[in-house]
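Lab meeting notes turned into a lecture example. A postdoc, R.K., suggested we walk through two folding results consecutively so the class can see how the record format repeats. The first protein's sequence and structure tokens come next.
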Amino acid sequence: MSRRGSRGIVLLDLVIAMALLSLLIFMVLPYVAPGTSPSRLGAYAADVAALFKSDRTAAARTGREVATRIDLVAKKIASGSSRRAVSLPSDVTLDLIASDACRLPEGQFAVIFAADGRTCGAVLSLAKASLVWRIRINWLTGFVDVVPPQSG
């Protein structure tokens, strides 16, 4: 067989292999779970905690109150010291436990960090199915920590 003919066979083999691979991918794709993965949910919790920490630091640095706004309906947490915001996808549940000091007019909420570190205190929960990540803000110190889902 000539060299030219063997190149054509190799090309045909490659096309057939790619067709089989794409068919396999299209058969498996519907079984891949859509939505937010457990690791992405943890990343959202870390992003929200980092936003709170940066607002706490900004309040201490500037000597003025900084309010981190929480919109439960839109599932959005917006920084009071920068334009940064974290928007959660629709399959993630956002819950808030906070004192009345965190309540703003129109039913909105904000964690307000004072220059001395105090805040109204709150616990935010980010959940999908049975996985619940909690972000706790201490009312006295303004300390922000992330509590991962309980195993078991």
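The second example is placed directly after the first for contrast:
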Amino acid sequence: MLTLLLLLVQVATPGSTASQPCAASEHRQFDFWIGEWEVRSGDGRLLGNNRITSILSGCALQEEWTSADAKVRGVSHNAFDPNDGRWHQAWVDTTPSRLDLVGGLVDGRMVMEQRSRDREGASVMQRITWTPLADGRLRQLWETSADGGGTWKTAFDGYYSRR
């Protein structure tokens, strides 16, 4: 998936040039996430730190996560694919966990989902929503559903403040 993602960001977007292959505005939709962040729970408990950087001449974002206890580290690559008009995220961490999310901008929020199967073969949905907040923070809400999206359980709810 990471190889595919890197190949996708090399595809020229309509209206772009060879010197600026990712100049279209769609490639900037997730730029609100770029930065050095301290991440806390709703009650203020430190959850970890996250560093989001623009890479590959603005064609992708790279995430570098470290939990507060430094036991979990993770990396994601995020890119807009002009072929399907959607954002894609490939995530891997030290638990080990892996996600391949797809989605896009919805009412100013980035929403990405994945449908997969658990070890027993049951359908599982993952949905992560990144919401810029009026006070300059950002909320990342990760939810899971075992009933096709009928009900959702919170897996992670973090509030990002710039460091």
